[in-house]
Amino acid sequence: MRKYVCAISMPEGGDLPAAATAEECRRTPSIWGRETGFQVADVNISVKKNRPAPTAAAGAESSPAKANRRNGAAALGVLPGLLGYTLRRTQEAVFGDFLANVTAKLSPAGMTPGQFGVLAIIAANPGLKQIELGGALGVDRSTIVAAVDKLEKRGLVERRSVPHDRRAHALNLTGEGQRIYRKALGLIERHEEKITDGLSAEERAMLLALLAKVMRAAAQ
């Protein structure tokens, strides 16, 4: 008797067929899959188990993500849509520009954004008490004492005793402190112009107002 070779479609995990005729073999389409052979009567049957069609896996890379990987950059996923992430990356970029265009140009001692903040508030409030300075900057007493100590050692700030309160100190800028403050302010104004170069005056004002809202909401 002539033997027929055919492929019988079988679901993954299903039972093998008990028998197959030559006519069934001729009618059965060949299906790609894993192949196992067995004999039924005089028909050589090659059983190919159906496999589910390939589907996109969860979290599969999109075309832009694949392009980033080819260019050596990892996809950022949801991060660019998170405000906190964007604020942190923005702060890092702004701080880097501050170091390059303000701190480095006030050598040898330099100046950090925090130190400039102290000088700016004292310049606007001569005779300000340390505790009031800390409240304005939103930092605790130990932090503000350390900051003022550093500026006092550099000859930029002086402490004066407060009448009727021996524990309190009034803060003022020295002559050198005023000079350094004015120089730093000029550098910072140019730094601010650079980082807001793509914004109009109205957009800059709106950005400041929106960031103030975010800051208040985060502080609650």
Describe the protein.
The chain is of the alpha+beta class and 220 residues long. Helices cover 48% and strands 17% of the residues. The chain has eight helices and six strands, in the order βαββαααβααββαα. It has helices at residues 22-27, 63-70, 83-101, 113-124, 130-137, 141-153, 175-195, 201-219, and strands spanning 5-10, 34-40, 43-49, 128-129, 157-162, 165-173. Strands 1-3-2 form a three-stranded mixed sheet. The protein has a three-stranded antiparallel sheet with strand order 4-6-5. β2 and β3 form a beta hairpin. It is elongated and about 70 Å long. The termini are far apart. Residues 1-49 have low confidence and may be disordered.
Question: What tags apply to this protein structure?
Answer:
220 residues, alpha+beta, 3-stranded mixed β-sheet, 3-stranded antiparallel β-sheet, 8 helices, elongated
Write a short abstract of this structure.
With 220 residues, this protein is an alpha+beta fold. Helices cover 48% and strands 17% of the residues.
Number of helices: 8
- Topology, number of strands: 6
Radius of gyration: 37 Å
Task: Assign the structural class, choosing from mainly alpha, mainly beta, alpha/beta, alpha+beta, or little secondary structure.
Answer: alpha+beta
Query: Unreliable runs, pLDDT <50, ≥5 residues?
Result: 1-49
Alpha-carbon distance between the termini? 88 Å
Helix content: 40-55%
Molecular shape: elongated
Strand content: 15-25%
Major sheet attributes:
3 strands, mixed
Instruction: Tell me the series of helices and strands, N- to C-terminal.
Output: EHEEHHHEHHEEHH
